[in-house]
Every structure is written in structure tokens, then in C-alpha cells.
Amino acid sequence: MASGLDTMASIDQALHQVRRDIQDLDRQIRAASDKIIHMNQDQTNCLRELAELRLDQLTSGPLFMDLDDADQRVTELLRDRAKSLQALQEQIEESDRRQSTLEADRATQQQKVHAASASLDRGEAGTQQRLAREPGYQEQLKRAQNSDRVAKHAEQKAQQAHKDRLNKGQEFEADSLFVYLWKRGFGTSKYSANPLMRTLDGWVAKLCRYHDARPNYTMLLEIPKRLGEHAEDLRKEADREFEALRELEEQASAADGIPGLRENLQQEEQRAQDIDDAIQKEEMHYSELVKLRSEFAGGEDAYSRQCLEILLNQLRREPLAQLRREAEQTSFPEDNIVVGRLADLDQAKLRLESQLAEHKQLHLRYLDRLEELEKIRWNFKQKRFDDIHSAFPDGSPIGGMLNEFLKGMVSSGQLWGIIEQLHRRLRIEADPNFGSGSLGRSSGSTWRLPAPAPHQSQSYSMGGGGDMGGGGGFRTGGGF
Q1: What local confidence, expressed as pLDDT, does residue 101 receive?
Q2: CA distance 283 to 265
Q3: Which H or E run contains 242?
Q4: Burial class (CB in 10 A: 0-12, 13-18, 19+), 212
Q5: What is d(CA 443, CA 244) in angstroms, rounded to the nearest whole number?
Q6: Mean pLDDT in residue range 70-76
Q7: CA dihedral of 271, 276, 281, 285, whole degrees rounded to 10
Q8: Which residue has the higher pLDDT, 40 or 133?
Q9: Fewer CB within 10 Å, N- or C-terminus of the chain?
Q10: Range in 142-151, 248-257, 441-450 with the lowest mean pLDDT
Q11: Where are the domains of the chain?
């Protein structure tokens, strides 16, 4: 069996891989965006050359001034953009360091939780062994088990009587004449009517054979009620015997110092929960920073938008467009060279813009994968699947499913469903089904281990169990 901690480590490894993929893609998007901005600058420079070749000094003077001014403003904006991006990158790196520190703290704290859980497990096991040798406790256990068995039998009889009442009562209740007389209380002290109505109701009673049916219907209604009351009394008696049994267990536990061990475990688990909350908060902050960096990478930040607006406004100016048209119509080789460079720039920009659009779509999928995987890890920790009582079958397909998830071949819901299906609760020393735990109560048993997580989060769920087979360790190809 693989431990919950090992499986948790595989999830962490997949999470780090997604973050590395996002960083790599950010660099590619940023490089493409920067190239497009520089290509726009190159286009303005080409048009400046055309102006030098084609326009006289009177026209080119103010045009050059406008182009130079635009180029200078763009250069200044790009310088400010680089500073802002550097500051943002430093925040991301700092957030990443804080997460690493918190994860290390969490790993250390989880060892304390495991130690506290093991101490409680050993303590409860010792108390159970002592109680198993005490005649007084064993006698009370038998009384509680017998009372519970009798109460369950009575409850089953009451349930069956209720079903019979529903099924057999339909025959009576389908007779409208019988129902009419029954509601009027005919044949009982509750019945009241004038002589004429009495005569008519008597005639109706003969038609539907009311006097024969009424006792049977009365009994059909009374039996479930009486059996239900009897079952309720027996259940109260079984509850008293159960509480007496649990009281003996609690007294023995208190004598062995179990409450202190439980409190210590709760405190250690709460410290782990506090760290988990801090990790989640930092992950959300990290996600916001990464999304902001994505805006820079994709040229969607305020600086990039201003640069593009300035350059495009210059490129759209009528004198520049006219320059290009005129240059294309001349036979001067100098003009043709510059126009050829402009055409090459146009083609290169189109290719880069298409590539950039694909990268941005892929980037969104990466961010979705990161968010989904963080939710899976959060659910994993909240359900305490990484505690000492958790394990997964050897050769489980979780590692392979993680690979498929990173490639986009399976959903986060499918991955979480497999994790829940394969999860096993292990008994270490204490038996959760000992004594009061053997009576099948949904709550109230003295024994807490193996215990569910103290905090349950909403998550994907497919339920069930069983060994799915296949699988292996986690490996990543570095992409979806």
C-alpha cells in the first residue's frame, strides 16, 4: 500500500509542473508580444526612410518630428513597462518562496499530527484491551447489544406494519361509501345525526357492509401505532444501555489519559488547518499575480496598449500611407527595398499574431489546470487523505491519471473520483468497531480512530471504492 503522503507528493509534483509550464509559456508569449511592438517600431522607421527619399524638407520636417516623438514616447513606456514587470516578477518569486516555506511548515506540522494520532491510537488500543478483560464492561456490552437487537427487531416490525397499513388500507379507502361513514364516525359514540339521516346512513352501511369492515380497518390503523410506540420505548431503553456502555468507556478512557491525547490531536490538526488556510490564501495571491503577469506577457497591460495605440496612430496617418503607395509605384531601387522590408514585416507580424493567439488560448487552459489541481490538493488535505490511517493500493493508477490530467485527457472530477475510490482507511492498533462502535450508531461511539477530517470541503465526488489496477508513479511530459 502506498501512503497518503506519497500520493500527496505526486499531486504536489504535478502542481509544480503546471506552474513551470505556465512560466515557460509566459516567456514565449512575452517574447512574441515584444517582437510585435518592435516590428511596429521598425515599420515607422521604414516609413521615415521613405519620407527621406520621397518628401521635400518642407513636408518631411514636421513628419519626422512626429515620428521621432512617437518613437521616444514608446521607448519611455517600454522602459517603465520593464520596471513594472520586474517588480511583478519579484512579487511572484516572493509568493513562491512563501508557499515553499508554508509547505515545509505544513510537512513538519503533519508529522506532529501523525505523532499525536499514533499516540491516541495506541492509547485507545490499550484502553480497549483493558476493557476486554473487565467482566462488568463485558456484561454491559452484552446488555447494550441485546437491547439494540431487540429495538431493531421492533422497529422492523413497526415499519412492516406501516407498509401493510398503506397497502391493505387502499381497499378500504377506495370505497367512497365506507370513507363517508368512517369520517362521520358511524357506529361509534362520536356519531350524531337526526332520525332520517340515521336511517339513510344505516341503509348505506348495509350496502358497503360497513359493520364488518370497520373493526378490521380500526385494527389496521391501530397496529402500526402501537408497534411504533413499542419500538420507540425499546429504542429509548437501548439508548440508555448504550449510554451506560459509553459511560464505562469514557471513564476508562479518562483514567488512561485519552481525553488529553484527543485534545492534543485536535490542537495539532488545527495548527495544520491554519497552515492549510495560509497556503490557500497565498495560492490565490499567486494566481492573481500570475494572471497579471499574463497580461504583460500577452501585451494586454496598460503600457503595451499605449505603445500600440501610439504606433498604430502613426502608421495610419494619411501622409505615411500615401508615402507607401507612391513608393510602390516608382522604379527607384531604394524605394523598392524599403517597401519590401515593410511587406516582410507585415507577414512576420501576421505569423506572430497567429502564434500569440494560440499561446494565449493554451495559457488559459494552463491556468484552469492550475486552479483545478489546487482544488484537488485542498480537498485531499481537508479529508485527511495524507494522515497515518490513509493509504492507496500498490500499483494504483493515480500517477497515470495525473499525467493524463496534465495532458488534458481526463477532467479534475475524474481524477478526484479515482482518488476517492482508491482511498483506504487503515486500522493501526485501536479498533473503531470495539464496544460502542460495534452497535452501528452514526455518532456517539467512544472510539475516534480512524477519524474523518475535522473540516470537510465541498469537492468533486464519485464515491465508491475498489482497486482500479494499472497505473504507476507520476511522470510528466511537461505539457497538456
Answers
A1: 92
A2: 27
A3: helix 210-255
A4: exposed
A5: 15
A6: 77
A7: 130
A8: 133
A9: N
A10: 441-450
A11: 135-255
**224 prior amide bond cis, ω within 30:** no
The pLDDT assigned to 475 comes to 36
**Residue 80: C-alpha distances to residues 38, 90, 292 (Å):** 16, 16, 16
Phi, psi for 345 (deg, rounded to 5): -65, -40
pLDDT of residue 455: 42
Scan for cell 494504483, then name that residue. 396
How far apart (Å, rounded) are the C-alpha atoms in residues 35 and 42? 10
CB 377 within 8 A of CB 451: no
Q: What's the rounded mean pLDDT across residues 139-163?
A: 92
DSSP of 385-403? TTSTTEEE-TT-THHHHHH
Percent of the chain with pLDDT over 90: 16
Q: What is the DSSP letter of 424?
A: E
Q: List CB contacts of 20: < 8 A, sequence separation 6 or more.
A: 478
Single-letter code of the amino acid located at 382: Q
The grid coordinates of residue 243 equal: 449510554
pTM, full prediction: 0.57
Cα-Cα end-to-end distance for the chain = 29
The dihedral formed by the CA atoms of 465, 468, 474 and 477, expressed in degrees to the nearest 10: -120
Residue with cell 494560440: 358
Q: What φ, ψ does residue 145 adopt, rounded to 5°?
A: -65, -40
Q: Are 367 and 294 in contact (CB under 8 A)?
A: yes
Alpha-carbon distance values, 247 to 151, 265, 398, 435 (Å): 20, 22, 43, 11
Torsion angle of alpha carbons 38, 41, 46, 50, nearest 10°?
180
**Residue reference for cell 502613426:** 314
What does the block give as the cell for 173? 379507502
